[in-house]
Amino acid sequence: MAGSKGLTGRQKLGWAVVSVVVLVYALFPVAAIFANSFKTQADLGNPSFWPRNWTLTHYEMIFVGGAQELFLTSLRNSIGITLIATFVAVVLATLCAYAIARLNFPGKRIILGAALAVSIFPVISVVTPLFNLWRTIGLYDTWPGLIIPYLSLTLPISIWTLSAFFRQIPWELEQAAQVDGATQWQAFRKAIVPLAAPGVFTTAILAFFIAWNDFVYGISLTSTEAARPVPAALAFFQGASQFEEPTGAISAAAIVVTIPVVVLVLLFQRRIVSGLTQGAVKG
Amino acid sequence: MTATAESTRKQRRSSKKPRRSDRTKAEIRLGWLLAGPAFFVMLAVTAYPIAQATFDSLFSFRLTAPDERSFVFLDNYILLFSDGLFWRIFGVTLLITVVTVAVELVLGFALALVMHRALKSLRGALRTAILVPYGIITVVSAFAWYYMFDINSGFVNNWFSWVPGIDSDLDWFSNFGTAITVIMASEIWKTTPFIALLLLAGLAQVPDELVEAARVDGATKVQQFTRVIIPNMKAAIMVAVLFRALDAFRIFDNVFIMTGGDANTEVLALLAYRQSISRLEIGLGSAVSVVLFICVLLLCLLAVKGFRVDLASGTDSSGGKKQGGK
């Protein structure tokens, strides 16, 4: 905090105000839905921000109650499909980015250009033909039926981000290690992997965010609980009776799927920012 | 940046060992062996479907009556373009794109300047906070904003009842103006952090000496900003705007959750969804998909040719700068 000594009282106050404004901007809607998730059904009908009586009813409903099947299966689908899509994309992209950063071969620019083109591609445009094709070949409403199209979301950003990361690695270290007597594999494992791992990890986080966020594929290419991910399932929630809005249950489910995002952001804020600005492809 | 990095690498390598052609061949083979799978998977999940959609759009084809499929050439497109409804939906999509990107650019700049100037200790906390909207699921954001404004459970009508036009009976989602405002608010909230972070990277690229020199020469704060800082980060601004514009044009989640297209808030992506997935009109739905794709393509070409946005260099230079800054 050495730097803050130079600030006058007024400047300090100014920064405090600015920080509060930014924090409120960033967290207000999250706080609102968080508050909703703890409101009783009666509280949901009155216009106060915080619940008058805090209740866990809605969390009970999605974890052990009536909405359990809908929510828990979709949560399992979301986690499984997202993790697999992220893993496959990062593995393929790591090989690809390594080749782009290290090797000289014609077609490099084409590959990077294709990644860029795919990342601006409107998802809805590929949904119609996939919907039709998946129904014909039996991939409709299955995990692979979502994992494959998710690659169109996760691969481009992974290739760009990793290429940017790998360009910065001092590959000479590998040769230096070999000169010092390491085998090629040892040199790669001991010198290069520790330098490359943070980039790969950051890329995985970004890819995870994108796949976790998907709604278009999720709602178009599934029809039952067999593969429906959480964002799509939220649109199917129903109230306890037909006169009751499922506001509380949706809010509780929304908070549950926001937890992984918040945890990742809290732990890896610096890495996410550097990954985003280096790859600079839409996330 | 890419070119220089590659050429120095090439020089380095060629100065070490004289290149033999079989070595070059082996390198090319290895390169495609490693990069090929990713490349072909990407093409398979996008190029093939869009080709199929283009083909399907030339047919009158309903999944409910698969036998009545018939070739109609451009009839689906003619039907679309001659329908006033399509043009209204197109207009709404364009409106959302223009307004959200403009607001996000201003807000994003403010956020980027705050983070740029903030003390180190504060910077981490601010960046963590704005990454929450970035990472949050769009559907969750849509529900959060929907419930805030909802006539039954929302608090906005109550809090802002002193504003003329807002009272407890105002149903935000029943007419176009108010509904589209909330939809755009959610979109802006969720995506401004992305723009802010790109602009922050751009700000870091502006040499401090330039700003200092302008200050010494007597430039006011505003002049420093408009004459020195903005021109020096034009590339970052263009890339941020283009990516966001392309993304905003595909808006789907927020509209689907909040209004489902009611109150005239339907957008192109939702139209495509309703035609093909809900109504199983594969022919017409494909036509809408192709039109949407061509719009995004045109928007991109316009930016790259018209404004000379070099997407590749823009993304690259921010990466290069990061490296230099460390």
TrEMBL record, chain A:
Question: By its UniProt entry, which PROSITE patterns does this protein fall under?
Answer: ABC_TM1
Which sequence ranges are marked TM in the entry? 12-35, 79-101, 110-134, 146-166, 191-212, 249-268
Report the GO terms under cellular component: plasma membrane
The record's annotation in CDD domains points to: TM_PBP2
Q: Which residues form a coiled coil?
A: none
Q: Which residues form the ABC transmembrane type-1 domain?
A: 75-268
Its recorded name reads: Carbohydrate ABC transporter permease
Q: What is the lineage of its organism?
A: Bacteria, Bacillati, Actinomycetota, Actinomycetes, Micrococcales
